[in-house]
What does this fold into?
Amino acid sequence: MRDTAPHGTYKVQALDRAFAVLDLLGESDTPLGLAQVASSLELHKSTAHRFLMVLERHRMVERTSNGKFRLGLRLFDFGNRAIEQYDLRERAQSHLRKLVAETEETAHLCILEGAHVIYIDKIEPARSVRMITRIGASNPVHCTSVGKAILAFLPEERIAEVLRKTRFERFTHRTIATPEALRAEIEKTRRRGYAVDDEELEEGLRCIAVPVLDAQRLPVAAVSVSGPSFRVTAQKLPSIANHLLQCVRGISADMGFTSSGRGSRATWSS
It folds into this structure.
């Protein structure tokens, strides 16, 4: 595993080596020193040190009081999130199918990642005109109903953090383009209990979303109904919102989330 890779393959090799470091630390019953890591992976000490420093900076590994390295708690967080998201998707399926049958429009299940939302599931109606998306794709929070739905029920410090990371790119003439405008939309979403993307991401497409709340009344995901604006009209939004509310309540119940806790933060009312 010596440092002889050409420049074009360096980044891929660097990822391989970083994962090799994590695998090594994960297989060890005790923290390892720099020399042990370098020797086990056949790396120069300087190279091993460089990888460990990057992983430590991202909290993937941590240093003990005697200067040795072990896996960091951020990996525990990732593992918990992966399990939760897998469980969430599985448990949401029947509720999403019911939602699509009721609204005859496309339903999405999304999570927040940085300043973007990730589509982790999608159910489509049997219609020729429908929203074209793919599972695993992402979109910015500021122009999506799911993004605004999640933001509206996050603690203030998390909202501020997401807004700092958001690039307010314009996609249509309706796209929210400033932090101040997004904050106003977040407040409106919080008051009515659901968020709307009114042709902000794509001309002719309207979406409405509601957050899935955990036992602490914090959003772990959001569910949306999306369709062409000539079908998903402003007049239909309250009715669709009611179907969405029933959907996310069912998902939350199946996930074991209760409605007790910080109830003043999210009302789930339309």
